[in-house]
Specification:
Layout: H1 12-17, E1 24-27, H2 33-45, E2 50-53, H3 75-84, H4 91-97, E3 101-104, E4 107-110, H5 112-118, E5 131-135, E6 150-154
Parallel strand pairs: 1-2
Antiparallel strand pairs: 3-4, 5-6
Length: about 160
């Protein structure tokens, strides 16, 4: 089964077994963002290619669940989110409903978005992890003090 609607030859088996060449590169999850960016820039300059993120050079798929412990979620933030959403069920149920987690073979698997938002130390699981958000006062972007965004980064 193809993994791409644009290139039917991109199957999991092919990506795992085909050696890396100018137009195919594997990058494990431990790669720095700058290294991944440099690979993408090189491919774009060479006319395109496929970069498979989350796959080791030997073709092993690096799943996030093998590194993540749900106990590392910040319970206070999870509860604040549940209350802000006015959800009466558990945070786990809400995470599934909001596409922050999925159930697989009886296990709850949190997605990267949930780890970035709710883990106490997201960079432990996702290298160079950061969330940047911008909030404006009011409903319009203006110059001066009313147009200055409030910016925060969670690392």
């Amino acid at each position: 089964m193809s993994l791409s609607e644009y290139n039917s030859s991109l199957t999991l088996k092919r990506l795992q077994t085909k050696p890396e060449v100018q137009y195919l590169e594997h990058k494990g999850r431990d790669q720095k963002a700058t290294k991944v960016a440099n690979e993408l820039i090189g491919m774009l300059n060479a006319g395109g290619g496929t970069l498979v993120y989350g796959m080791a050079d030997d073709g092993t798929v690096e799943e996030l669940q093998d590194d993540f412990d749900p106990e590392d979620l910040d319970a206070t933030i999870c509860e604040e989110y549940r209350k802000a959403m006015s959800y009466t069920g558990s945070f786990e149920q809400l995470a599934v409903k909001r596409n922050l987690a999925r159930r697989k073979e009886g296990q709850l698997i949190y997605k990267n978005s949930a780890i970035l938002l709710f883990a106490e130390d997201p960079s432990q699981y996702i290298n160079n992890a950061a969330v940047r958000y911008v909030r404006y006062r009011g409903t319009e972007l203006k110059s001066g003090t009313y147009g200055i965004p409030t910016v925060g980064i969670k690392e």
